[in-house]
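In the current project phase, we have settled on a layout for protein records. One protein thus recorded is set out beneath this paragraph:
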Amino acid sequence: MTKAETKTFLELLAEVPEHRRGNAIKYSLRDVLFLATFAILCGAETYTGMETFSNLHIKELREYLELPHGIPSHDVFGDILSRVNIEAVNECFKVFTESIRTQNLKEAVIALDGKTIRRSQSTEHKAFHIETAYLSDMQIVLGQTAIDEKSNEITAIPKLLKMLTIQNSTVTIDAMGTHDSIAREVRKSGAEYILPVKENQPSLLEDIRIYAENEVLCEKTSNLQANQRYAVQHDKGHGRIETRECYLFDRVDWLNERHNWTDMNGVAVLRSTRTILNTGETSCVDRFFIYSHSDMTAERFLRLQRKHWAIENNLHWCLDCCFHEDDMHVRLGHAAVVINALRKLCMQMLKADTSVKDSLAGKRQRCAWSFDYALSVASNFAFLDAHVS
């Protein structure tokens, strides 16, 4: 999108269809979603917190919203967020993040992973599981979809992929997503894939493990390195030293199941050796992967696969530790899913702010202390215009 075509998130919220009917609607859906998002940005973590924050700042908020009936009660926040069209909110979120995806990345990695909102279960439904697509290089959420049970990830992931623009990217997924229907959808969308092979694919795992032990891992690393089929990384931190070695098999004619996987062009083994500095204790783990790239090297594979963990370290960890998502008792309807999307939006606003040097939690606390700072974070991220009459 060009700058002229880009809509603020507040404008996109106005396009979410109204689920209520009749002429007794006091609070517009756009206003409620705006208030909820802005309150979360400033530290609110409950419906009561949303109401309290909005009442404390009603004068400033009326510069952006009409609010003819004042601020909604906490019950109104809960009722509306639990019944709003979640697909429309997700589409709104996707359109907005696509509009700010400005960097032309040479090796874009889109990591897919799921997270269960632990306390969202009720007598009517199990805890919601959110499958998220995360652009690791820019640390932005591209889209998400909610499912009731983790076992449904195999059907949810292709649905999520169809929502996104992933052409010329590399899609990485955890072992739950290692399924040919997913590999086929990735390739159909013009992207490459890296898929881990674990016990949910027992025969494939066994074939790869036997070949690796007898034909590759026993070969001299200098010979493999000369053909770009071996690379090594060393990391030191958090009281440990970790060595990651990548062994690449760019021939797969030995693999019986190769025809079951769309465009599979190679296999990789990652050997992680970890030493705890205090105790000297050492552990070694081998992990196995298949990939579709026709020009893969061991060094490149290490780089691409390492980016997958950004979704755990920079997204899911932050949702739990900075936004306390797993402690929130939001059970009515699908409010937990809506609020999860709003939290991710707030997280991206805070990460995008470079006016202060502070942690994510620190910036969120600054928003709670300074309404002007919160406004600058939101307006700089195109959540709203800097001046709205």
Q: What stands out?
A: Strands lie at 109-116, 129-135, 140-147, 170-173, 192-197, 230-237, 240-249, 266-276, 282-291. The two ends are 25 Å apart (CA to CA). The longest helix spans residues 335-352. The chain has two domains: 9-96+331-380, 101-315.
